[in-house]
Design a protein that fits this description.
Length: 374
C-alpha cells in the first residue's frame, strides 16, 4: 500500500500549504519535460501526482487517513488507480472540473500560463544601454549584442533528430492530457508521459539535446526615440529567449541610461547650463555665448545688475518631448565669479570703485536720516 505522506516527504499532520509546496518541488523535479526518457522519473511523477490528488483534497485525505488507499478506490476498484493504466471506471462529475482546474492552475503557474500545454514561454531578458545626451536629443539607432536562447536551427526547434523520430504519445494518443478515474470520480491532467506536448521523441537532436533550444549570441538594431529620458525602458517584443518547442518567445527590455554631459544638466525636458560671468559683466550687462544641444552656440543678452544664481530662460532650446515637435527650454544659470590674481593696476581701479561705492552709500544714508529727522 502506498504511503502518500512518505511519497511527498511530509509528516502526517502536514498543513495544506506544506503539502502543496512539497508537491510543487517534487513535481518540478520529476516532470517528464525535465527528464526526457527517464522511466524512473516518470513513475515517480505519477506517484507524486497520486499522493497530491488525495492529500490536497480534505474529504479524500480524511478517508485515506481513516481507511487507507483502498477505501478511495470504492466501487470502481482495480484498474482505476492513479498509477495503473488510465482506463477504468469513468464518470464526469463536478469533482472532475474542480480537480482539472486545480491542476491546470498549478501547471499554468509554473509553465508560463498556457492552459493546454506545459511548454514554457521564453524568458524575458534585460539589457542596459548607455547613450549620450546628444543621442537622446536626436534619437538614435544602436546595435545591441546579447546572449539569448534561440530555437535550434538543426531541428527547427522540434528537439527531434528527424521528423520520423517524433511519435504520437502512446499514453494520451497525442492529446497531451489524460483522463483517469478514482472511485466515483474521473479526472483529467497533463499527460505525465509527454508532459502535455502529445509527442514523444525517440531520438533527440544532437545539437540541442532534444530541448529545441540553443544558447547563442544575438544582435539587434534598436531605434531609440528622440527625447528619451534616463531610466526609460524600451520593450522589444519577442526578442527574449525562445520558448520551448515553438511556444512564444519572451521579450527584451532595454533600460536606457543617458550619460552625463560636460555642459548640460537635465531636468526632464529642460536643460540647464551654468554661465560663468565676471562681476563687471554681471554689473554692466553683456551679450554672452552659450552652447546649445543642437550643436553650436547662440548669443543671449544678460541684463545689467544680474545676480548670482539668476536663471535666464531661452525657450524651445531644451530636449524634445516624445512624439511632439515641442521642446523644453534652456535655462541659463548665472554664476558670477569673483576675480583673483589681479594686477596692481586692476587692484587700484577696484579700490577707486570701492571708494566710490562707499561714498554713494553714505550719501544715501544721510539723505535717509535727513528724511526721518525732517
Ligand atoms: Zn535541435
Ligand atoms: Zn502524452
Amino acid at each position: 500500500m502506498a504511503d502518500y505522506y512518505r511519497t511527498l516527504g511530509v509528516p502526517k499532520n502536514a498543513s495544506d500549504e506544506e503539502i502543496k509546496s512539497a508537491f510543487r518541488k517534487l513535481a518540478l523535479k520529476y516532470h517528464p519535460d525535465r527528464n526526457p526518457g527517464n522511466k524512473e522519473a516518470e513513475n515517480k511523477f505519477k506517484e507524486i501526482n497520486e499522493a497530491y490528488e488525495i492529500l490536497s483534497n480534505p474529504e479524500k485525505r480524511k478517508i485515506y487517513d481513516a481507511y487507507g488507499e483502498d477505501a478511495l478506490k470504492g466501487a470502481a476498484g482495480g484498474p482505476g488507480g492513479f498509477s495503473g493504466g488510465f482506463g477504468g471506471f469513468s464518470q464526469q462529475g463536478d469533482f472532475s472540473d474542480i480537480f482539472g482546474d486545480v491542476f491546470e492552475n498549478f501547471f499554468g503557474d509554473q509553465m508560463g500560463g498556457r492552459r493546454s500545454s506545459s511548454r514554457r514561454r521564453g524568458a524575458d531578458l534585460k539589457y542596459k544601454a548607455e547613450i549620450s545626451l546628444e543621442e537622446a536629443f536626436n534619437g538614435a539607432k544602436i546595435e545591441i549584442k546579447y546572449d539569448k536562447r534561440s530555437s535550434c536551427k538543426t531541428c527547427g526547434g522540434s528537439g527531434a533528430q528527424s521528423k520520423s523520430s517524433v511519435k504520437k504519445c502512446p499514453s494520451c494518443g497525442g492529446r497531451g492530457r489524460v483522463q483517469y478515474s478514482q472511485g466515483f470520480f474521473s479526472f483529467t491532467q497533463t499527460c505525465p508521459k509527454c508532459g502535455g506536448s502529445g509527442e514523444i521523441i525517440s531520438s533527440p537532436c544532437k545539437d540541442c539535446g532534444g530541448l529545441g533550444i540553443v544558447k547563442e549570441k544575438s544582435s539587434l538594431n534598436v531605434k531609440i526615440p528622440a527625447g528619451v529620458e534616463d531610466g526609460s525602458v524600451l520593450r522589444v517584443s519577442g526578442a527574449g529567449d525562445a520558448g520551448e518547442k515553438g511556444s512564444s518567445p519572451g521579450d527584451l527590455y532595454i533600460e536606457i541610461s543617458v550619460r552625463h554631459h560636460p555642459h548640460f544638466e537635465r531636468d526632464r525636458q529642460d536643460l540647464i547650463y551654468e554661465l560663468p560671468l565676471d562681476m563687471a559683466d554681471a554689473a554692466l550687462g553683456c551679450e554672452a555665448e552659450v552652447p546649445v544641444i543642437d550643436g553650436g552656440r547662440i548669443k543671449i543678452k544678460v541684463p545689467e545688475g544680474v545676480q548670482f544664481g539668476k536663471i535666464l530662460r531661452v525657450s524651445e532650446k531644451g530636449m524634445p518631448y516624445a512624439n511632439s515637435r515641442k521642446r523644453g527650454d534652456l535655462l541659463v544659470r548665472v554664476k558670477v565669479e569673483t576675480p583673483s590674481h589681479l594686477t596692481s593696476e586692476q587692484k587700484e581701479l577696484l579700490r577707486k570703485f570701492s571708494e566710490s561705492l562707499k561714498q554713494q552709500k553714505e550719501k544715501e544714508n544721510s539723505s535717509f536720516f535727513k528724511k526721518i529727522f525732517d
